[in-house]
Amino acid sequence: MTHLPYIVASYALGVLVPASYAVAAFIRMRSARRRLAVIDPRAKGVGTGPRAHRASAGP
Amino acid sequence: MDASSVVAPPPSERNPGRSLHRFANPGRFLRLSGAVLPWLAAGGAGFLAIGLIWGLFFAPADWQQGDAVRIMYVHVPAAWLASAGYLGLAVCSVFALVWRHPLADLAAVEIGPVGAGFTALCLATGSIWGKPMWGAWWVWDARLTSVLVLFFLYLGHIALVRAFDDPVRGYRSGAILALIGVVNLPIIKFSVDWWNTLHQPATISFTGAPTMYIGMLWPLLFAAIGYTLVFAAIVIARTRAAVMERRTRALLMARAERVPA
């Protein structure tokens, strides 16, 4: 394969850039959901999924 | 004409923006986006994996460029999404400015960094392709320069919406900047036709048949669909997080106001 270093660099960027954005968005969404579920018990089940149900249930 | 013959028009005809506000309810948005998001993410990852693997290992090499043509399967979708993302930013800005759609502000703020990342990806992969093909990492070509301006517009929008203590003023200023910057999109699109550029003209258009070999076109379409779905999934996930963060802030403020001094 010709120009291999250039191709590898491009594909690495092409995977890493969207993946880093996706991971960051997922972590931010999860922490926002947990914070909201702790403060507002009504938030459970409003499009926040079963994880928020458990988080907001409390002791 | 008697009073009984006067029939109120349906809500969608009374105010075109009103029907859009059905989707402005944060709870409804969270429910809808929560249902759509896993499908978008899974579909995007699937299409992207197929497109990139197909382009890297199974698509033919170009008779002139050799295997460097495979960079196209990353570069071209990133370039499309750089422009499409800015168009989405501008559309959200119109909704925010004209109809005061409360989610449009948040969506515009969240599109900005993602669009900037894809524009940077487009510029970087174009530069990586340019070195072996043109012998230079960068040339001040009309297409490259207009995309660089797009990148700076994204950065300006990101900075402007965060530059005010009052977030609403930041959103309004960012929306105005986004609408002014829309003029750059046709310049990017037609720069290869208006000026004598080193960058090649478009090989795929909405009006004409593609001038690309079909064995290269299919992986490019798969990669483009995959990147588009991933872009949408990232923006929706960020907007969901922003909606929940805003609700958390509002609840904390309400609690703080209830506490006696």
Could you explain how this protein is built, in words?
Chain A has 59 residues and is mainly alpha-helical. Chain A has a domain at 17-56. Chain A contains 2 helices and no strands. In chain A, helix 1 (4-39) packs across helix 2. With 261 residues, chain B is mostly helical. The interface between A and B is large, with 32 and 51 residues.
Give keywords.
heterodimer, A: 59 residues, mainly alpha, 2 helices, 76% helix, disordered C terminus, B: 261 residues, 9 helices, 74% helix, 0% strand, globular, disordered N terminus
Which structural class do the helices and strands of chain B define?
mainly alpha
Largest sheet of chain B: none
Total of helices of chain A: 2
Strand content of chain A: under 5%
- How far apart the termini of chain B lie comes to 62 Å
Order of helices and strands of chain B: HHHHHHHHH
Strand content of chain B: under 5%
Shape estimate of chain B: globular
Average pLDDT confidence of chain B is 88
> What shape does the CA trace of chain A take?
rod-shaped
Number of strands of chain B: 0
Report the uncertain regions of chain B. 1-13
Number of helices of chain B: 9
Oligomer: heterodimer
Biggest β-sheet of chain A, characterized?
A: none
What structural class results from the helix and strand content of chain A?
Answer: mainly alpha
Largest interface: A-B, 32 and 51 residues
Short description:
The complex is a heterodimer of chains A (about 60) and B (about 260). In chain A, about 75% of the residues lie in helices and about 0% in strands. Chain A is mainly alpha-helical and about 60 residues long.
Write the layout of secondary structure elements.
The complex is a heterodimer of chains A (59) and B (261).
Chain A: H1 4-39, H2 49-57
Helix pairs in contact in A: 1-2
Chain B: H1 11-14, H2 16-20, H3 26-58, H4 72-98, H5 102-134, H6 142-161, H7 167-181, H8 184-194, H9 214-258
